[in-house]
Amino acid sequence: MTDRQRPTVMSPSFPHVWQGKQPTSRLLYAETLVTKTDLPNQQKTKQQIIVVKIGSSLLTNNGKGLDRTAIYEWAKQIAHLHNQGHQVLLVSSGAVAEGVVRMNLEERPKKLQALQACASIGQMGLIETWWSALIQYGVQSAQLLLTHDDLANRSRYLNAASTLQQLLEWRVLPVINENDTVSVDEIKFGDNDSLGAMVAAMVKADLYIILTDQQGVYTDNPRNNPDAKLIKTERAMADYLFDIAGDGGKLGRGGMLTKIRAARLAAMGGCPTVIVSGAFEQVINRVVAGEPLGTLLTTNEDDKLIAKKQWLAAHLRMAGRLVMDDGAVEAVIRNHKSLLPVGVVEVQGDFDEGDVVECVDKEGVRIAVGQVDFSATEARRIARKRNSEIETILGKHDERHVMVHRDNMAIIV
C-alpha cells in the first residue's frame, strides 16, 4: 500500500458558529461525530508532558493586536491540565503581530531589522498577557526565548533543557517563543511550529498539539476545493503530506507545510502530533482526553530514525568538519558504515561531543552530516588511529569507538 492509499479520511463538516453566549475568541461548536480513543503513549490517569503551540491567527483579534479574551480562554484550558498534574509547556506566537499593531503598520515587515523591532515591542505585551491570564488560576509562568543556535549547539541545548526541567519540577509553566530580536538568518523557525517540535523532543513530550485556524490536514485546500477531506490519522513521515501543504498567512509565517515539518521533528523524539483547529470549544482538554479532533500524525521506531536523519540533513549550521580518506568515503556511501577515527585525516573547527559536523572528502565535497561522538580536541588526538589505540590515548574506561555512528548520520551525496 502506497502513502497515497494509506490515510483515513472523513468528509469535512465545518462546525457552525456557537450561537450562545460567545466571547470574542470565536469558539465554535464541535459537531464532528467522534468516539473516544487513546492517543499514542496516553493513559487517562497518567501525568503527561504536553507541548501546546498556539499561532498568531488564534492570538490576534482580526489584526487588531492580541485577543486577550482568547488568550484567557487558552489559559483556562492550559491551567486545567496543569492543575491535573500534567506538565504543560506553551509555545506562543504573537509577538511580531502585536508589535505590528502597536506600531500601526499595515502588514508584517519584510526587512529583518523591522521584524526584530516588532518582536521586541510585541513580546512585552504577549508575556504580560499570558502571565496575567495564568496566574488567576494559580499557575506561575516563566518566559523562555530561544534561537536556532540555542538548539543547534549541544552545550546551549543542554542548558535550555536543564532550565526547562527545573521549571517543570517547580511546577512553573514555561511560555516559550523564538528570540526574534537576535535571530540573524531571518526569523526561521516557521511560526514557532518547528521550535515547539524541538522543545517536545527536548523534554521527551508525550504529545505535541499545534493549534491553527484549520481543522487539520486536508487532502486538498478546503478553502478552494469543497471535496477536500480531512485526514484523521497518518504517519508523520508520509511523503505525500508535503504535496498537499499550503503557505503561511498574513500575520503568521507558518502554513500547513511548516506544521508537517514540525510533526516530523517531533517524530524524531518519538512524540505524536495533533494539528487541530483552535476554534473547537475546549479543544486542548478534549484532545488530551483522547477525542479524535483534527489530524493525528503518528510515529514509530523506524520513523524516528528517518526523521532524525532528515533533521541532520537540513541542519543550518555545522559546528566543525571531518575530512575523510577515500576508504572512509567508500565505507560511508556504499556500505552505509559508521565513520571510524582511522578514516579521518583532518579535524577542523571547535566542537563538543554531540554537535553536528559535516563529513567531507579530501576535495572538500560534503558527503554526510552527523552528530560526532567526540569533542574536537579528542577527535584530533585519535584521528587516523585504529580502535585498539583509542583506549590507550583517551583512557582505558573510554568505550567510544566511532567518530560518527551511522544512526546519527545523514548521507548528502
Q: From the alpha-carbon coordinates, what is the Rg to the nearest angstrom?
A: 23 Å
Mean pLDDT: 81
Main-sheet strand order equals 1-7-9-8-6-2-3-5-4
> Strand percentage, roughly?
15-25%
How many angstroms separate the termini?
29 Å
Q: Can you count the beta strands?
A: 14
Overall geometry: elongated
The number of helices is: 13
Listing every helix as H and every strand as E from the N terminus to the C terminus, the arrangement reads EEHHEHHEHHEHEEHEHEHEHEEEHHE
Catalogue the unreliable spans: 1-45, 248-254
Helix fraction, binned, reads 25-40%
Helix-strand category: alpha/beta
The largest sheet, given as strand count, sense and whether it forms a barrel, is: 9 strands, mixed
What features would you highlight for this structure?
9-stranded mixed β-sheet; alpha/beta; 13 helices; 413 residues; 5-stranded mixed β-sheet
